[in-house]
Design brief:
The structure is a homodimer of 578-residue chains.
Chain A (H helix, E strand, L loop, with lengths): L3 H6 L1 H27 L7 H19 L8 E6 L7 E6 L2 E11 L11 H5 L4 H18 L3 H6 L1 H33 L8 H10 L5 H8 L6 H28 L11 H28 L8 H21 L4 H19 L2 H32 L7 H29 L6 H9 L5 H8 L5 H27 L2 H18 L6 H4 L5 H7 L2 H30 L28 H5 L1
Antiparallel strand pairs in A: 2-3
Chain lengths: 578, 578
């Protein structure tokens, strides 16, 4: 009686489901720590989460066999509608059922298979309503003022015009490929021009997460950095509204997928209406959240959290896009509300959204890895995949290079061709692209899009992301070699060679090291406490990836009054040994 | 296509639902702030949340009329089982439905009514799986070491023996009342002895939340405080396991609700098994979470959070009680893991769980207020309600007084009779009682229990809680009178009467105030900066209600070096005016 839910629906599986993901996240966290600890940075943490997800997907797919329970029953009923709530009268007792969704045609019998795989499948709406909002809010909240607003024109150009250009270029390229596939006979179902445009919209959203992580390493100009980050944050919003406008252009019951001027205008109207509505709502609630609760950080933080969340819900209830509203709410709150908060609440809100963002992000990426094997309607079409990669490449190029050229005509701080290449390849696809493509996988076209999108995300995160990460690697190797061997040999600074060379070279090392080198080194050990603290501080900032590091003035290191280096400390062990 | 979910299930209502609760929480937060700001403390914040919930419940019940949408369809099908997943074949298309639960017999047609009220109704499992865990974990996490473990014997006695005694006393008393009601003809359905015991178990859980809040005001002995708080935390765990053991004693299909020795033994076995299993699991994961991630607070906090959550899930998956496991996990983590965390992570985890606890707690209490009007199967039986209040009183008395007497035989620090009375009346019923009673409201007996429990919670939180809160009120009035009028009149300390008396009494005041009083007062104004800081510090601690304030050594106030009071400051405006 108490556990009716458990008895009828199999609690074990429900919890197994969540436990698998918690295990994945825990593994990811531990590995990230290991990587950071050893300063091994070939791969970004989201790439790591994906790999673990992949592994678990393989295990679930091929390793685990769950005996089939016969709990699924197919009813054939003479009902005309598909109601949200169904009351089923089973031998005199009423049971209430809620609609989960339509099962794709002809797959009725397949639903019973692979129970375990289905259990690790989340409702796509979970991504939109639970996981994306904190990620997008955090991106907006960490978008710092000065450099963002100084470059607002360029950012908006890339985000709006660039995304629209990219969407249409990709759509047209895909249309060519799809037409070719139809001729060759490689297409297994319908694929209309609107589907191509829709695909263009969903893969045009670049990911702010990896941009933030990678550009902490490469010390680029702060303005250019703001440009890239601002673009990647805003184009998520553009892509989401663009894709829903395209869906609005393609009426559900209508089979004429041809181009129509009126429908196009309607779509444009939807785009403008939804975007401006979401924008206005987000900014309004962001501005409204000025608080006078400075004395009570808990209340203040709670209120801040609730207001941000209600922005999302309010926007969805009004028919706008919650994610977009939350983005602008975050930007506005970072701009106005943040400064009204008490210092403790500033820390608290930052840390809270940072944690939520971290968990949601890693969850999405490990789920991405998992779906490659657990999703059961994959349509991998080699031609389509090749076409998609070409199209994404072309789309990004058509966004960056022409717009940069035009923008450079008006900018004082020109966008160099080097940086244009970086922008071209740093356009990783991430959480938003995935969420948009998994939202609807009912038709053949959508399934093919989903499978292809998955590959695009994998490729960009691993290859482009990994490439950018390891870009910094050769420099570090050189630095270490220089610091440990060349400097001690050629100057008095750095650790003495007796410490850095292996023990067998002891004699050689001793000959090559000057007495002053020991003194300087011993002195540097004295300083080590200070150094370590600073080092940790830097690490923390990198670990949290919270703010644009060039933008946010880091507290100046506390000036420690120390004796001047020339006078050697008295208790120098090396000296006495000599 | 994009918004299939919204089109079919009415997004507006889904979001309206959450928006109502966010609005409620926001209102509660603002009012709490107002109360704290004005130092008005007649009512505890949970009591406030309840009142707002009540108001919204009334509005929804009587004020809002939502036109009936005909989305509910009753199907009569020849199926024997009630499967967890249902595939419905509607004119060739398959729709997937998930089981929500059984609708009570004969209420089939009523389900369609009051759509709006049903929309604000949450699945009872939400309380157990989402809202209770953070509350209970937080209680365990804020249970500080020293005083808790010093009194562990007494705490366990109250929590285990006391709760079992209380459960049986309440059960027996209720059985007498119910038998009487049956004779009088006031009983509208079955009510067995096991139902009485179940009722005893669910109303025996006292609430740690209000205890914490109230006893910050009354400066009782720290050991006694630890006693009361420890008991209220642990008896939640005992009550939850006890109630599920009683359900296990009462087999679903069996109609013989008489007393059986074998079934009793089985129940006892279930109790021991579930309790020790949950305990072992909680402690094990708590101990395991030692971290070496000190350099990365974000990773550390995330890991900490995930481990706590996985404890809950793991326990549920193993058939133990997640809430109990989480409690012991929290206690263990406060005892061991907390000290391994970096200082920043200590703050972060504290603040995170504090926020989650705050939100969950206020959500539950406002939902409680709401259900008084929105729940549609209330059974208010005056006789049963009177009986329940008498039984709860007797049960608490049979717990506290005899056990205190026995414990005092062995204790050095005796539990005074005054404090016994406080324990007697501070046994408020809160979130756990509510969650246990709303979990199953299918039968007449359970519905009557639910309605009565609601009233008991309301009564104890408002009357007992409010009583304890305002216990400190007369003292404060006296203090103010004393400080503002008596002290200035009789001594040289305090503000001069010219400042405290109304303007019309200016002459009188001037006559009664000595010149020294001005000097002392002016000096105290100089000190005011320091005082204010300390005052705020105290408020923050009270506002967050995070730790036992006597237990946790508050930072000593920074000693400010000030000139000694006798030498009057030179720039005294009052003096010059004189």
């Amino acid at each position: 009686l108490m556990n009716t839910c458990c008895i009828t629906s199999g609690c074990y599986h429900r919890y197994a489901n969540l436990l698998i993901f918690i295990m994945l996240l825990t593994l990811t966290i531990l590995t990230i720590w290991l990587f950071k600890h050893r300063r091994f940075r070939f791969l970004h943490e989201t790439g790591l989460a994906m790999i673990y997800g992949l592994l678990v997907g393989v295990i679930l797919r091929f390793g685990v066999h769950v005996p089939q329970n016969m709990s699924n029953v197919v009813l054939s009923c003479a009902v005309n509608a598909s109601p949200a709530t169904l009351l089923v009268n089973i031998s005199g007792r009423y049971f209430e059922y809620t609609l989960k969704g339509e099962v794709s045609r002809g797959k009725g019998h397949q639903v019973q298979d692979d129970e375990m795989l289905r259990k690790v499948t989340f409702d796509p709406e979970v991504f939109f309503n639970i996981l994306l909002p904190p990620i997008i809010f955090h991106a907006g909240y960490s978008l710092k003022r000065r450099h963002f607003f100084r470059n607002i024109g360029s950012i908006l150009t890339y985000a709006f015009m660039g995304t629209v250009i990219s969407c249409f270029v990709i759509g047209l390229t895909m249309y060519c490929f799809v037409s070719f596939m139809k001729v060759v006979g490689q297409l297994g179902g319908d694929f209309y021009f609107t589907d191509c445009l829709f695909f263009g919209a969903i893969v045009s959203a670049t990911d702010p997460v990896t941009v933030l992580a990678i550009f902490n390493e490469l010390k680029v100009d702060v303005d250019l950095y703001a440009l890239l980050f601002g673009e990647s944050v805003l184009n998520d919003a553009v892509a989401i509204v663009l894709s829903s406008s395209i869906v609005a252009y393609q009426p559900a019951g209508d089979n004429s997928h041809s181009f129509e001027a009126m429908a196009m205008l309607k779509s444009f109207g939807v785009f403008l209406g939804v975007f401006s509505g979401s924008f206005a709502l987000g900014v309004a609630t962001g501005v409204m959240t000025f608080t006078k609760l400075r004395d009570f950080p808990l209340l203040e933080t709670a209120l801040f959290f609730l207001m941000s969340w209600s922005t999302f819900l309010l926007a969805e209830a009004c028919g706008f896009t919650g994610v977009v509203a939350v983005l602008f709410c975050g930007i506005t709150q970072a701009h106005y509300t943040y400064n009204n908060l008490s210092p403790e609440s500033q820390d608290r809100t930052k840390q809270l959204f940072e944690l939520l963002n971290f968990l949601a992000e890693n969850f999405i990426f490990s789920y991405m890895g998992l779906t490659l094997f657990s999703f059961q309607s994959h349509v991998f079409n080699p031609l389509f995949i090749v076409g998609a990669f070409v199209a994404v490449f072309l789309g990004r190029a058509a966004n960056i290079y022409p717009l940069s050229f035009l923008l450079n005509l008006g900018r004082k701080n020109k966008i160099g061709s080097n940086f244009q290449h970086v922008m071209m390849f740093a356009g990783l696809r991430g959480a938003m692209t995935f969420a948009l493509s998994i939202r609807d996988t009912a038709t053949y076209a959508r399934q093919m899009m989903f499978s292809t999108t998955l590959l695009i995300v994998f490729f960009t995160v691993w290859i482009c992301g990994g490439g950018c990460e390891s870009y910094a690697w050769p420099f570090r190797i050189w630095y270490n070699f220089d610091h440990n061997y060349l400097k001690p040999l050629l100057t008095h600074s750095g650790p003495p060679l007796t410490a850095t060379l292996p023990a067998c070279c002891g004699l050689l090392a001793r000959c090559l090291t000057s007495p002053q080198a020991y003194e300087v080194w011993a002195y540097s050990i004295l300083l080590k406490g200070t150094e370590l603290t600073l080092g940790e501080h830097e690490l923390v900032i990198r670990g949290t990836r919270l703010v644009l590091p060039m933008d946010d003035p880091v507290e100046p290191p506390t000036t420690v009054t120390l004796p001047p280096p020339p006078s050697p400390p008295h208790s120098d062990p090396h000296r006495h040994r000599l």
